[in-house]
Amino acid sequence: MTTTAKLKPTPAGGGRPEHLSHVIFIAATAALGGFLFGYDSAVINGAVEGIRGKFDVDPGTLGTVIAIALLGAAIGAMVAGRLADRIGRIRVMQIAAVLFAVSGLGSMLPFALWDLAMWRTLGGVAIGMASVIAPAYIAEVAPAEYRGRLASFQQAAIVLGIAISQLVNWVLLQFADGDQRGSLLGLEAWQIMLGVEVVPALLYGLMSLRIPESPRYLIAQGRRAEAQAVLADVEPKGTDLDAKVAEIDARMHMEHKPRLSDLMGGRAGLLPIVWVGIGLSVFQQLVGINVIFYYSSSLWQSVGIDPSSSFFYSFTTSIINIIGTVIAMIFVDRLGRKPLALIGSAGMAVSLGLAAWAFSYKEGTGDNITLPDAQGTVALLAAHSFVLFFALSWGVVVWVMLGEMFPNRIRAAALGVAASAQWIANFAITKTFPSMSDWNLSASYMIYTAFALLSIPFILRFVPETKGKTLEQMG
User: Fold this and answer.
1) What one-character-per-residue DSSP string does 107-135 give?
2) 31, 127, 113: which is closest to 78 by C-alpha?
3) CB of 130 closer than 8 Å to CB of 37
4) What is the pLDDT of residues 256-267, one digit of tens each?
């Protein structure tokens, strides 16, 4: 399936897969959906002020247009799991690629505000699909001993997509003489920013043609020989493939095909493990991480920083995001999921608290708002520190755990529900931030600080450790 070089065979009984390079290629290709997820989510950061000026919108309406893609993402996340069980994981990736491309073109050429909102909603559906299908597919293909690191490719791709979108936005802004509404290729700069997404969308669609279908999907469809061929390429040397196929098949035949009704049970309506997945998803958003990725350029301009510098700081936080994600990829299978999450929660709480303190010194009104030099420095450092602690913990851990914590019989449906909850929480934060920042920027960050603190007892009490367990051991 790929021309990447194979690793040298390991001695009999060795744990490293013989074709690890092939496994990495498969995981990286699937994670291109994560790249588009990150790119599409964050590229709007560079267009916020351009949209505000072009359509002359108030903060509440602006927040709706920026956030509406997240409602589409909730829909995409909800349908992706069931669709993947019917037509396959690869077909869902290809549908998402088409939606990304169409959304990019439409967003580049809107003729009204509602039109832009419609195209962003369509892109959101693609984001939701990518948010579900990539971690599920990687978890189903990756060998257990490498699954954590390979699953973290999803978050690595997301943060790379965020960083590239901010870099592209900054470069385009320079060509437009620092004006988001400056002329580029016969359009305004912010329109070109939104349209560039078509390029990675086409690449994602083409690359998805080169990876195999999930062995678990193939077994569910009765295509055992094809599933065994895929497993031969990804499992460690010496694995009894007949036994592996039989184990997966037996586990899947113990239960009927997943339905949303399968998630029901317990005193709180849903199964406890589903509530844990929802809790992880919601806490990941309620700390306010996407305020940084969607509004950072506007945020820094609101405290007196010029547009070019604000775009640059958006890019530097994206680089910090990548660094933190690499740290998480190194330690997610060494320390475990829960320790990383706890470290991140503590670090985020401190960073957000410092940002809230710094923003409390905001002075002036209108276009004459400033922060004192000391508080401005603290705000910048706190924002970067917040992104670092999020990236090395919750950014990776949540996606890894959502791909592996649910039993096989409910994995697709439960992952869809948890991801939908994440997008709804993301929508709530993104929609309210423009109005909240106008009300009290410091108080807004105090609220995010409180959620970071509350996530600590949630992890300690409810979140299971999944390090080193096979998917079949989850249920």
Assistant:
1) HHS-SSHHHHHHHHHHHHHHHHHHHHHHH
2) 127
3) yes
4) 555 666 777 766
